[in-house]
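fyi for ur records
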Amino acid sequence: MAIVLIVEDDEDVRALVVHRLKQAGHDVLVEADGEAGLAAARQSVPDLVILDWMMPRRNGLEVCFELRADEAFANTRILMLTAKAQEQDIERALSAGADDYVVKPFSSRELIARATALLSR
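which gave:
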């Protein structure tokens, strides 16, 4: 199936998302901060990146901007998965190049459905 990179600093959220994506048949890569996430993305060029916003070393919005500025990621989908729920936060993320936005707490079923929809584009 697809290569999915999860960049999330919360261990419990990471474990849940990894489990559900693997159940769906995807190859999953995991990093716990933005800087490591960028390095992993450059190495693997994933089909989908699931990004938390608030992380150490580089936040998800910065990672999103950087990925969108690199032509190598033109076909990579980005889904923000974050507790930031204000309308202006969603607008900022979409303006930065995110393809979708899911607010924590979230339904893992909804997350997988959105990831599947993004991957089918």
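Residues 3-116 form a domain with the Rossmann fold fold (CATH 3.40.50.2300). thats all i got for now
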